[in-house]
Write a structure and sequence with these properties.
214 residues; alpha/beta; Leucine-rich repeat, LRR (right-handed beta-alpha superhelix); seven-stranded mixed sheet; binds 2-acetamido-2-deoxy-beta-D-glucopyranose
Length: 214
C-alpha cells in the first residue's frame, strides 16, 4: 500500500524533469543557432578552435562558451586571442543571452551592427585589438548593465556617443588607439563608478571638463 504513492510520485517527478529538460533544450537550441550564426561569418580559424562548434553537440561544451552552473544557460563567449578572422554576425542581437562577450586580439574587421545594443544583459564587451571600423553605435547607452567596455586598438571613428554617459555602471572604459574625434563632454562626470578611463591616441581635442573629478 505504502509503495503506490511513491511510485506515482516518481512518475510525476520524472515527467516534470522531462518537461523542464525540454524547456532548457529549446532555449539551448535557439542559443546554439545564434552561436552557429556567429561562426558562419568567421572565415579563418587557423588553429581549429571552433571545430567543436557543431549542430550535433551541446554548446556548453564548446571552446570559448561558458554556461552558468545554476541554469545551464549560455553566459559568456570568450574568443580572445584565437587568431580568428571575419566580420561580425549581422544578427548579433540574437546573442541576447550573453553577459560577457570577448572577441579581443583577433582579426575581426568591418562595422559593428547596430543590433549590438540589443545585448541588454552584457556586463563586459571586449573588442580590443582587432580591425573594427565605423562608429560606435549611437545607442550604446542601451547596454545599461555594461561595466567594462574595451575597444582599444581598432579603427573606430566619429564622436563619442552621448548615450555612453548613461551607462552608470561603467567601471572601465578603454578606447585607446582609435580615430575618435571631438571633445570629452561634461557628461563624463555622470560616470561615477568609473575607475579606468583611457582615450590615448585618438583625434580628440578641446579642454578636459572639470566634471572629470567626479
Ligand atoms: C526559456 O526561454 C523562455 C522564453 O525565451 C523563458 O521564458 C524560459 O524561462 C526559459 N527557460 C529556461 C529554463 O531558461
Ligand atoms: C537563449 O537562452 C536563454 C535562456 O537560456 C533564453 O532566455 C533566450 O531567449 C535564448 N536566446 C536566443 C537568442 O535563443
Ligand atoms: C536571429 O533572429 C532573427 C529574428 O530575430 C531570426 O529571423 C533568425 O533566424 C535568427 N538567426 C539565428 C541564426 O538564430
Ligand atoms: C580585453 O582583452 C585584452 C586583450 O586580450 C585584455 O588585455 C584586457 O584585459 C581585456 N579587457 C577587459 C576589460 O576585459
Ligand atoms: C539617457 O537615459 C535617459 C533616461 O533613461 C533617457 O531619457 C535619455 O534619452 C538617454 N540619453 C541618451 C543620449 O541616450
Amino acid at each position: 500500500m505504502g509503495k503506490l504513492p511513491s511510485f506515482v510520485f516518481l512518475i510525476f517527478s520524472f515527467h516534470c524533469f522531462k518537461s523542464s529538460l525540454a524547456l532548457i533544450d529549446t532555449n539551448i537550441s535557439t542559443n546554439k543557432s545564434a552561436l552557429l550564426g556567429l561562426k558562419s561569418f568567421i572565415t579563418s580559424d587557423p588553429y581549429d578552435y571552433l571545430s567543436t562548434w557543431s549542430i550535433s553537440s551541446f554548446p556548453c561544451n564548446w571552446v570559448g562558451v561558458t554556461c552558468s552552473n545554476r541554469h545551464g544557460r549560455v553566459h559568456s563567449l570568450n574568443l580572445g586571442g584565437m587568431d580568428l578572422k571575419g566580420t561580425i554576425y549581422p544578427q548579433l542581437g540574437n546573442l541576447s543571452f550573453l553577459v560577457e562577450l570577448d572577441l579581443s586580439s583577433n582579426n575581426f574587421y568591418g562595422k559593428i551592427s547596430r543590433e549590438l545594443v540589443q545585448l541588454h544583459r552584457l556586463k563586459l564587451l571586449n573588442l580590443s585589438h582587432n580591425d573594427f571600423q565605423g562608429q560606435v553605435p549611437t545607442r550604446i547607452g542601451d547596454l545599461s548593465m555594461l561595466e567594462h567596455l574595451n575597444i582599444r586598438n581598432n579603427n573606430f571613428e566619429g564622436f563619442i556617443p552621448l548615450s555612453l554617459f548613461n551607462l552608470s555602471r561603467l567601471k572601465t572604459l578603454d578606447w585607446n588607439s582609435n580615430l575618435i574625434e571631438g571633445s570629452i563632454l561634461v557628461e563624463v562626470g555622470r560616470l561615477d563608478h568609473l575607475n579606468v578611463l583611457q582615450l590615448l591616441r585618438n583625434k580628440l581635442l578641446g579642454i578636459i571638463p572639470q566634471t572629470i573629478s567626479n
